[in-house]
Amino acid sequence: DVIAGFLYAILILVVFHPVVDLIDNFNLTYKYAPLIIIRTAFEMAAVEKIEEQLASLRIEKRSTLSEEPAYLLDIDLSKPAQSESSRFVAVSCSNKSVRVYNRETLNFLREYSSHPGILNGVRFAHACDSIVFSACSDGTVKCWDIRLATQKAVQIFSGYPSNVFISFDINCSDLIICAGTEEVEKDTFLVFWDARGITNCASATKEPLGVYSESHNDDITKISFHPTEPNLVVSGSTDGLVNVFDINKDNEDDALLSTCNSDSSVSFIGWSGKDYNQVYCMTHDEGFCWWDIAQLDTEEPITLLHVLDVRDAVCVENDSLHYLVGGLYHEKADKLFLIGGTSTGNIHLISCSTDGLSLVGTLCGGHSAAVRSFCWNLTDESLLTGGEDAQLLLWKPGAVERSLAKKASMKIASSVQKRVRVHNSSLKSRKK
């Protein structure tokens, strides 16, 4: 009887064990389901709050128009090094100058105009909020110290004789600068420099550390270092390719981690995602691509979203979408947004998800011509925008404008306009 009872117990355990497991799993799921629902609801509420804040952006300040109006091509905020917030705004202009403003008042502080070529980007150092860089088509990247009264660059990073720089960035540790070139005689380069020792080598000229020359075959229009990983950089080109590199590797072949094809000429690139493991780009014919680089070593597809023409995909009531300016990733909401606009100066804020794009809101009454540049400040949820009307605007949620400056329109000589215009028609047809 004892043996029979023992065998019966074993039989019961074998037969009903899967059922017990199922019940246990159900209980676990049931136990934690409310937590999952609460978390999802919390995340959705956070996103909705951010979208409401973006939609409620209003003009707080306008910069005073300068004596020589110019298109505002690129904007960057100084990084809050010692202070709690950014102190300065740097703007690259179509008249070949870099202008620096007070971040809170938008009062003009100083201007650097010793650029023999066209400017293509402006960036502040991460560790020192008074150091700013600019890339120029003359084959140099110049470094300026806004604490000094001099008009001379404190350091010049020179490229090779044929280099024409049209994009650049500096990594998050301020150690490496990278600039991208136009195609010259079938050559296209990513040029790298050691950025250390800036303040100790006044007016010194630095030669490149080296180049990548095999990964693109046309103009390198955009470069963006990873926000937190100093060795990762992504580049975009008119050849349609978006390449991610690990510059710690010994050679270009090993450094190339991934190549994504946008099927069109790249106009803007950026990083997104909680760990910044996603890359997105926009194209000169207003397309949008979004990839998850974390899926490279898996069998999952890396493409999160591919929109051939955002102008057709986003519905804007009583208005239209003419072009894209760029994107911004909101860390708190873990949400990617696009910024687009109209030729009359309206700004459209667009929400991105793997299901598609949707309009969040439209900012009106600010610019009177196309917006060319912007910079997002996560600290106070503010937005800086610059446009072809030569205006620099500061937008904040629920703000009331107190500036006396007035909107104005402007024109620039056609030769310059054609050369610097982001949405150049000639670029739209350059697909490979």
Automatic annotation (TrEMBL):
Keywords, in A-Z order: Membrane, Repeat, Transmembrane, Transmembrane helix, WD repeat
Domain of life where this protein originates: Eukaryota
First and last residues of every WD repeat: 112-147, 213-255, 364-396
TM segment ranges: 6-23
Pfam families (alphabetical): WD40
PROSITE patterns found in the cross-reference section: WD_REPEATS_2, WD_REPEATS_REGION
Record protein name field: WD repeat-containing protein 89
InterPro entries cross-referenced by the UniProt entry: WD40/YVTN_repeat-like_dom_sf, WD40_repeat_dom_sf, WD40_rpt, WDR89
